[in-house]
Structure formats: C-alpha cells, structure tokens
Amino acid sequence: MTGRLWGIGVGPGDPELLTVKAHRLIEQAGTVAWFAARGRPSNARAAAARHIRPRQPELPLYYPVTTELPAGAEYEELLAGFYDEAAERIATVLDGGEDVAVLCEGDPFFYGSYMYLHNRLAGRYESEVVPGVTSLLAGAAVLGVPLVCRNETLSVLSGVLSRDELERHLVDVEAAVVMKLGRNLAKVRASVAAAGLLDRAWYVELATLPAQRVLPLAEADSSGAPYFSMVIIPSAEASTR
C-alpha cells in the first residue's frame, strides 16, 4: 500500500498556534517534509520543531529563488520545475508505503506552497489538508483591531501586483490586507497613500513571533520588509463599533 499525504498548516510562527490535529499527524508521519529558502532556516519547521521525533526522517525542499518575482515565463518555468521535482521526491516516499506530512506556513491553501504539491499528487495518493491559522488573522490579532463587521467585504491583495493594479483594487475597499511585501513595501505604501487610506493602514511584521513589529504604515521603513509582513487596512466601521 502507498503512504498518505498530509498538507499541514503550522500557522504564522508561534508554536502554540498549531492545531491538535497538526500535532498528532506530525508525530505520526513516517517522513516530515518542509520548504525553506536555500541557506536559511525553515520557518515552517521551526514552528513544528517540538513535534518532530528524534531521528524522524525529514525531507527538505529548497526553493530555487529567494525572492518572489513578478509573473514571467522564466520565473514560472523555474518554479514549476521545482514543484515537479519536489512532488516526485515525495511520491518516492509515498510509494514506499510511508506517510508524508508536508509542513506549510500559515494555511496550505492560502498562499501556501503545499498547494502546488497537492495539485500534482492528490489524484495519485490518499491526501488530507489540515488548515492552519493564516498570517492575516494573526496580524489582525496582534494589531488588536477588528478587520470587518456585518456585511462588509475584505480584500486580500498581493504586493507583487503593479502599482496601478494595487491602486485600482484599493480605491474601493472597505478593508484590505496586502501580503507578500518584501522589496515591494515602498510601492505598496505609495499605492495605499494614492488610494487615500494611509491614515488607517498598519504595517505588521513577524506576527506572533518574538521579533514582531506593529506600527503605522506611514512610519515603516520603505527599503524592504521580511517575508512574514503585511499591510492591514481595517474597516473604519469595524474599528469604531
């Protein structure tokens, strides 16, 4: 029999935010796989480290690039090849009868790298996804301000979008979260200002981790931001009710 594939959301970084189910499956898995930028520690593994057994086999999956780039044929081809190779490495373990738990920062299906493995493997193997606390909800929690209320809508945007696209989306939002800041922070801040939202926009970095930072977006250093950072624009109504 082949092994089972588990995509496990480990949350935004605080080990105490893993679910009970995530704990159980990590400890039960024959192999634990995790993503990391080459030369850097895995944030997903760090969040789950206390639940990885001594001498439990691990399968590191190192990204071929360390910065998310605008969509382009060369970039997409590079990532597709990486996910193809990673999926086949996991398939080899599954074919040997071992269950594999793939750790994923936040939630596997919300900007999660696991989803690309799921698309390649779920049709071939028994699989299950364990949801995790998303970084945007962790960000709202450490900010201490409600995001939306009643019948309002929340827009989630990628900082990789062009400035024109960001401004077009932001101008009509009731509440918004902009993910994937990195070197896009200056562009995002300019877009938020152009949409007239800078006065209620917040910058949240490394939410739930010891080094977390929360400050008004207008005061954030525009030179760049860590991967685990976001801009949160809470609903004006939700913040005052």
Describe the structure.
The protein has a five-stranded parallel beta sheet with strand order 3-2-4-1-5, with helices on both faces. Strands 6-7-10-8-9 form a five-stranded mixed beta sheet, with helices on both faces. The mean pLDDT is 92. By secondary structure, it is of the alpha/beta class. It has eight helices and ten strands. It is elongated and about 55 Å long. It has helices at 20-28, 43-48, 73-95, 114-121, 135-143, 163-170, 185-194, 236-240, and strands at residues 5-9, 31-37, 58-63, 100-104, 127-130, 154-158, 175-179, 202-205, 213-216, 229-233. The chain folds into two domains: 5-130, 3-Layer(aba) Sandwich (Cobalt-precorrin-4 Transmethylase, domain 1); 135-240, Tetrapyrrole methylase, C-terminal domain (Methyltransferase, Cobalt-precorrin-4 Transmethylase, Domain 2, 2-Layer Sandwich), CATH 3.30.950. It is 32% helix and 21% strand. Strand 2 (31-37), helix 2 and strand 3 form a beta-alpha-beta unit.
